Amino acid sequence: MKCEQKYEELIQKLVDSEATDEEKKQLDQHLTSCAPCRQHLKELKKVIAFVQSASHIEAPPSFTKDVMARLPERKQTSKWKQWTRKHPLLVSAAVFFLLMLASVSSLWNTGNEQVVVTGSGKVQIDQESGKVIVPEGEVIEGDLIIRNGLLQVDGEVQGNVLLVNSESYYASVGHVSGEIQELNQALDWVWYHVKNFFKEVVSFTNNEGSDK
User: What's the CA gap between 70 and 152, in Å, rounded?
Assistant: First the structure.
């Protein structure tokens, strides 16, 4: 069973010659009934005695030189590894971009025919014609993302509209209060996600700074 922390501290103070008479008395009383602490103190005293007895031992003058001569030759680090170690942020950014490119490209290549709508509110979707209709009187609060469809806004969209591999019925886009952006290539899709990621990072950094 492990003793209380205070007795370990008292033992340490005793071997360091920092314990007061009262602390020595308290520790002696504890040692009479605690075999583990007695053993621990005994081992510490042995270590101290060994170190003190070996303090006069010196290494031969050529010890360091001989040890260094026996070490294996250091392999030269390639310039590429040296560059990556000096520029960890650039390496991290490159890795992030490659992962983003792979993941977003896979998302782009899946479900090319099905119409997908992301956003709050009620919209009408016709999978056969690919038409997405915001009905008259319906108000979409926030952004609306349409994938593989033709958007017709008879109601109102209070936010931005993102058309991914999609088109809009331009006679009705006046009911959109935000921006309308079309992404019809995988590279545009990747760039859109990269910009949004860095916008969120900047926003988070600014919020952290304002909280301090």
Answer: 79
Domain containing residue 149: 116-211
Outline where 124-211 has alpha helix (H).
Answer: 186-211
At residue 1, the pLDDT reads 46
Tokens 């899709």 correspond to 189
Distance of CA 72 to the CA centre of its chain: 37
Between the CA of residue 126 and those of 15, 36, 152, 155, 167, what are the distances in Å? Answer: 85, 80, 12, 17, 14
Do residue 45 and residue 125 come from a single domain? no
CA separation for the pair 159, 144 (Å, rounded): 7
Q: Residue 132 in contact with residue 151, Cβ under 8 Å?
A: yes
Look at residue 118 and tell me whether its pLDDT is greater than 70: yes
* Predicted confidence band of residue 55 (pLDDT cuts 50, 70, 90): low
Query: Do 148 and 135 meet the contact criterion of CB atoms below 8 Å apart?
Result: no
Q: What confidence score (pLDDT) does residue 115 get?
A: 82
Residue at token pair 């019809």 = 184
Q: Angle at the Cα of 76 (from 74 to 82), degrees rounded to 5?
A: 125
Structural domain total, the chain? 2
φ, ψ of residue 57 to 5 degrees: the values are -75, 130
